[in-house]
Amino acid sequence: MYKKIFTKGKINGCEIKNRIILAPMDDSLGTATGEISPRAIEYYAAKAKGGCGLVIVGYVAVCGSELSGIAITGQAHLRTLADRHAMGNLAERIHEYGGKVFVQLNHPGRKTTAKYNDGNEPVSCSAMTPQMEGRFAPARELTTDEIHQLVDYYAIAAEHAFLAGIDGIEIHCAHSYLLSQFMSPAKNARMDEYGGSMENRCRIVVEIIQAIRKKVPPRYPVTVRLNAFDGENLEGENTLEDTVQIAKYLEDNGVDAIHFTLGTVDRTGAPEMEAGWRNEFYKRFKQELHVPIYGPNEVKTPEEGEKILEEGVYDFLVMGRQQSADPQWGNKAREGRPQDIRPCISCNYCLYHVTAEESQIRCAVNPTLGREIDNLLPMAQGDGTIVVIGAGPAGIQAALTAADRGFKVILIDKNGQIGGALQLANKPPKKFRIDNLINYYATQIREHENIELRLNTEVTSEMLDELEKINPYAVILASGGKPIIPRVAGVEKGVTANDVLSGKVVLKNKRVIVVGGGMTGLETAALLCGDNDVTVLEMMPMVGNGIFINNVIKSIEHLSKNGTKLKTSTSLKEIKDGAVVVEPFAGTANNSVLTGIKNIVGYDPFASDEEKPEGPYEIPCDTVVLSIGVFSENSLLPELEARFEQVVNIGDSAKPGKITTATSDGYYAAKNI
């Protein structure tokens, strides 16, 4: 089964046991001094243990703040003997499971801030170009001597990697980081030997390759990550055909493989993207190059990966977020258990948490991601029965974890189907990945012998009497939340987003105001905008707060194409017949979130010159849809606490949050109860 996936591969002298590669991602799990931490080591080791053939460690800094080389907090470095020794520990752990490991060497260029670099301003090939003015912050232009120094830094880092037992190097030339900035004619305005022609713009990369070759054996893999093309709508950007020529030039100058990505908002897959959507890009490079090529392609299942490899689109499968969702992807595929692979839903919370929230990597559906070291020991064996009330993501995860501990679990839900709020989140267009998660949960519940599922079951006092007779070891309440109804005049005239998403309220050919520009509000607007004239109101100066920026941008693009209007910094005051009354709101967004967004995108995508009217004003409408958020529904809690010795309240019923809050609550409550 999946013969192509489990065929050995080779990059220069490095033989890889299968065709599965872990994409380099910024994980922020490093130490304050730059050594890769034990926490990060176990994060990567989990992928090798799970069957991944090649692990690529992302965003490893080659220099410190003296040349503004730090991209983000918690970044691993490879500059010193201490860094090398820590990397040696990583290599041993990966090799323990038969995997191979590369490190991706990085300098952020202008895509960083002074606060990450001891107050030193970012550096780049050019301080500014005419194409970038008004969108990007200036950076200090590197001198020729500093460029030569950077080349040395890359070579020193590569030598440290080789001596640490790392199996190969990836030079990061993509995603608008420093080397990508040099290679871009829209971002490089230099007039010396490092600017102008394609060969000059690539000179720094070629010099890095040559310097590394002097430090490592000839069979040691030296690869690059390269944008297939750029897409920030700057005049003169590299096109697909431009990059074909760059890739051939780098191949001629000693690159052993090329890891392709995109320099566009699509570089991180959004929920609507299907596997294989980048095939034509890869085929174009495959026609021209002789070295192995690979890259992300929204592959989530073994069937998808096998098909693309059979077609000869590229040489290896690259999966980052899917192996975050389930590090055991490789083993489950090899064992013929694709139904047991926990699916990635492409929410990109993993990236949002690192970039916008400047924290360590976490996953919406995998509660142990980034915490592998905390969960190395087997969970304590359980005995008895645990009752879980609510079969949303929090309750389901609690039930699965408790059942894995050996408890008998009774999982109860008043609805006729599992999923809770997921059964609303799957209703907007192209949200099939939420259905994938629901189906995965249904399979795990059905196949687990320790779980008894009771649907269409209301928890009444009489039922609690019956449960008391069982004398459960614990009761876990995961009853979710209810929509917040704002205290404004005429609010009774509105409907909730839940009513729209569930199909209880159907709107067509209406002027609709959606109040709330969070994830639910944007997705409700997406559901409505094809058949209605939709306006979204948001109090904050940005929509999509709490959602990964590229997902937000794509949502805005979809809404704009369908005529939806977005009004930020706007507060609802009253709902009238035929209109709403609104007024400008002066609140500000979380500064750290905006900093993180600018860091990952490279500029502020929410900058707007739109003038706001002064004082209250009216917007005509036929229907108002309220999407303000949820509050906890835990009315059962007092009675449960009165009847049972151990009661734990989790998920939205404890504190409203995201899917990641729910699954994390469920896992750790059941693990530690």
| Structure class | alpha/beta
Strand portion: 15-25%
Radius of gyration: 26 Å
Cα distance, first to last residue?
Answer: 40 Å
Write the CATH fold name of the largest domain: TIM Barrel
Number of domains: 3
Instruction: State the name of the first-level CATH class of the largest domain.
Output: Alpha Beta
The dominant shape is: globular
Number of helices: 22
Q: Characterize the main sheet.
A: 8 strands, parallel, barrel
Summed over residues and divided by their number, the pLDDT gives a mean of: 94
Strand order of the largest sheet: 3-4-5-8-9-10-11-12
The unreliable regions are none
Topology of this protein?
Layout: E1 9-11, E2 14-16, E3 20-22, H1 38-49, E4 54-61, H2 81-96, E5 100-106, E6 123-124, E7 140-141, H3 144-164, E8 168-173, H4 178-183, H5 198-201, H6 203-213, E9 222-230, H7 240-252, E10 258-263, H8 279-288, E11 293-296, H9 302-310, E12 316-319, H10 321-325, H11 329-334, H12 349-355, E13 385-389, H13 393-404, E14 408-412, H14 422-425, H15 432-447, E15 451-454, H16 461-470, E16 474-477, E17 481-483, E18 495-496, H17 497-502, E19 511-515, H18 519-528, E20 533-537, H19 549-561, E21 565-567, E22 570-576, E23 579-584, H20 591-601, E24 617-620, E25 623-626, E26 630-632, H21 637-643, E27 647-649, H22 659-672
Parallel strand pairs: 3-4, 3-12, 4-5, 5-8, 6-7, 8-9, 9-10, 10-11, 11-12, 13-14, 13-16, 14-15, 16-27, 18-25, 19-20, 19-25, 20-21
Antiparallel strand pairs: 1-2, 17-26, 22-23, 23-24
Helix pairs in contact: 1-2, 2-3, 3-6, 7-8, 13-22, 18-19
